[in-house]
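just leaving the lab so this will be short. what follows is a protein written twice so to speak, once as letters and once as structure tokens for the fold. can you read through it and tell me how you think this chain folds. thanks a lot i owe you, the record is right below.

___
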Amino acid sequence: MPVLASGSAIRLQLLHAAGVPVTASPVDVDEDALRRQAEAQGLSLRDTALALAQAKAEAASGQHPGRFIIAADQILELEGRAFAKPADLTEARTHLLALRGRTHALHAAVTLWRDGQPLWSHISSPTLTMRSFSEVFLDDYLQQEGNILLSCVGCYRIEGLGIQLFDTVTGSSDAIAGLPLIPLLAALRQHGILPG
């Protein structure tokens, strides 16, 4: 049974819903240090998302010898600027105001490892355009969603009330949620983890 190197409930839910037998085993990596290192190396934010996923996979691979490791990461990019998860609802409000009326990308990277070796990787970059919502809507949205937004890189759950923030969305909903599922399922079949 593969290991998901993540504590993300939505990623685990997506895999279970798709019939993938997987156990979750979150790993502790210093994401801020890894992001700074990637920036120093001149990596794009898209490639940084993959580097973070690979760091998680490598850490989990050492803890689970012989098992297939699935790891993922996601970075929101707005005109070259990366957005991290907000520290509190005040910062979430600031983030949403910065995204309002503009188009951003969500770089969702996923990788498959075994015994410390990368077997496969993929990056999807859906684009989303937020509508020019009112301050009244924003205040109501923040009140309804509350602290759940602190675990969301874009301060929204597109599978819930967050869908009301958008004018247009291009890309798959699973990639927007942080796990490009169709390419991952193909890789799992290719490596004999799922039946063909």
Summary: Residues 79 and 104 are 7 Å apart (CA to CA). Strands lie at 3-4, 23-24, 68-78, 81-83, 103-114, 117-124, 127-130, 166-170. Residues 45-63 form the longest helix (19 residues).
